[in-house]
Amino acid sequence: MASIAITAPSSAEEGEKVSVSVKVTNTRTIGYIFKTEIFAVPDAYPDYLIFSTEDIIFGGSSKTYSASFTMPDCNTTVFVWLERFEFNRWNYEGSASKVVSLEVPAPETFHLSVHVPSGGYVTPGSGDYLAYSTVTLRAYPLSGYRF
């Protein structure tokens, strides 16, 4: 059997280019023609082929192939299918997979600083709030004070 090693990030943001590297090692003592296919398999969409080749890999040798895809809005599995050509036909040699999780960026926030001179208080106070959201401030006088 051949060995397959996939190198890909564990997560990526939507729209980010995801680079994938696949190393195929022929663990047999003689060379064979190998067909290597690399797929991106999003959780919510049909899979698609991102790389395919037929290549001779000599016994004990390795070849590394690179491919990339644009990260969709869901987790995506990088799937490698490997076949070996022998006796005038393609034979299943192995497969491997690695999940690239969708990385959801933290929401943007703005910091609101509230300075209240003596004689009252304001709610809510200073803090971080979602960017472009509305924060309603209310001022309250202490006893004996008026606004």
UniProtKB/TrEMBL annotation:
Q: Which InterPro entries match?
A: Bacterial_rp_domain (IPR044060)
Question: What's one Pfam family here?
Answer: Flg_new_2
Q: Which residues form the Bacterial repeat domain?
A: 113-147
Write down what this protein is called: Bacterial repeat domain-containing protein
**Which species?**
marine sediment metagenome
